[in-house]
Amino acid sequence: MDQLERIREIADRVAVAEGMELVDVGFAGRGPNAVLRIFLDKPGGITLRDCEVVSRQVGVILDVEDFIPTRYTLEVSSPGLDRRLAKPADYERFAGKQIQVVLKTPLEGRRRFSGRLRGIQEGKVQLEEENGQVLGFDYAEIQKANLVVEL
Predict the structure, then answer these.
(1) What share of the chain is helix, strand, coil (3-state, %, to 5)?
(2) pTM score
(3) Which residues pair with 73 in a beta bridge?
């Protein structure tokens, strides 16, 4: 298990114990400028207090285990309005929402698609483009996908 997977496991355990969902974990930067970012969510949204509780607990575990040998900054926050869709369940949860998808390899000469998420059917993420065409992508084909803020 690599370092990020272990951190994800620790953060997930803490988040679940506090009634939250771990959305994503990632590092930005290197060395003493490294930032460990943890994104959480729960029905109704998370509060500053939720972030504080998880930050303290995860921080203590990482420090006690001396899991990250260099200096780093720990940031815990909500995933934001344009949150990343990080796991298959997200594609069901956010069905009906506008999303942007980037594929690992081109489909019909394109890698970027946007439209209304229709969920998962027959093992494929269903996306309805603005022109009404419905496309299906294998989850494994998706490099990244995010919600689009609807005003």
Answers:
(1) 30, 40, 30
(2) 0.78
(3) 35
